[in-house]
């Protein structure tokens, strides 16, 4: 298991409703970012690994969003050609991998933002930009998609708060002993 996957599991990301640690999207993300994650950990070992995960997901989100926006016209033409040639009922058999990757990375990225207690309005803006980009290339309701993305943010926030309260519930003397004798 990669460090990237291990850190994601440590923060409970596998409990995210739309997340599957064994999915092709996660494997694609790990294949593209494992080496970077390892370099960042080595370069800045004093920083929390969750912050490194956030940075790698930020980079992945920017790249995925850029690909979706860049190929907007070609994807629309492909959807139109599929609908005309195979019919709308068969069109669902074809998958837009860049769009699926953007959605997946957005969910994971917003989860980590929530986990780290980051700003709601910034997360909402990012959720909206991803939803708008995906709306153009897929026939989806952008508001519903934005709400799904924000649900991931709130799930992360809930998990992060639970982690903090568990950490705070330990007795200070017990924590001192753990630090001294660990």
SSE diagram, text form:
Blueprint (H helix, E strand, L loop, with lengths): L2 H8 L13 H20 L5 H22 L1 H15 L1 H4 L5 H19 L4 H18 L4 H27 L3 H10 L1
Helix pairs in contact: 2-3, 2-6, 3-6, 6-7, 6-8, 7-8
Describe the fold and architecture:
The protein is 79% helix and 0% strand. The longest helix has 27 residues, at 142-168. It has helices at residues 3-10, 24-43, 49-70, 72-86, 88-91, 97-115, 120-137, 142-168, 172-181. Helix 6 packs antiparallel against helix 7 (120-137). The protein has one domain (3-181). With 182 residues, the protein is mostly helical. The chain has nine helices and no strands. The model has no long low-confidence stretch (mean pLDDT 84).
The value of Rg in angstroms is: 19 Å
- Number of alpha- plus pi-helical segments: 9
Backbone shape? elongated
- The proportion of residues in beta strands is under 5%
Low-confidence stretches: none
Portion in helices: over 70%
CA(first)-CA(last) distance? 25 Å
* Total beta strands: 0
In sequence order, what are the helices and strands, one letter per element? HHHHHHHHH
The average pLDDT value, as a whole number, equals 84
What characterizes the major β-sheet? none
Class by alpha and beta content? mainly alpha
Number of domains: 1
């Amino acid at each position: 298991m990669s460090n990237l996957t291990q850190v994601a599991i440590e923060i409970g990301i596998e409990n995210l409703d739309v997340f599957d640690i064994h999915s092709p999207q996660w494997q694609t993300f790990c294949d593209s970012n494992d080496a970077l994650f390892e370099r960042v950990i080595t370069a800045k070992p004093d920083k929390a690994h969750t912050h490194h995960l956030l940075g790698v997901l930020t980079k992945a989100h920017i790249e995925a969003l850029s690909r979706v926006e860049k190929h907007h016209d070609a994807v629309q033409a492909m959807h139109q050609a599929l609908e005309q040639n195979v019919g709308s009922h068969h069109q669902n058999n074809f998958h837009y991998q860049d769009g699926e990757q953007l959605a997946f990375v957005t969910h994971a990225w917003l989860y980590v933002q929530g986990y780290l207690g980051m700003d709601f309005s910034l997360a909402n803006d990012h959720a909206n930009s991803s939803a708008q980009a995906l709306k153009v290339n897929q026939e989806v309701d952008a508001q519903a998609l934005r709400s799904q993305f924000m649900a991931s943010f709130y799930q992360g926030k809930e998990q992060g708060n639970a982690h903090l309260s568990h950490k705070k519930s330990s007795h200070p003397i017990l924590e001192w002993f753990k630090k001294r004798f660990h």
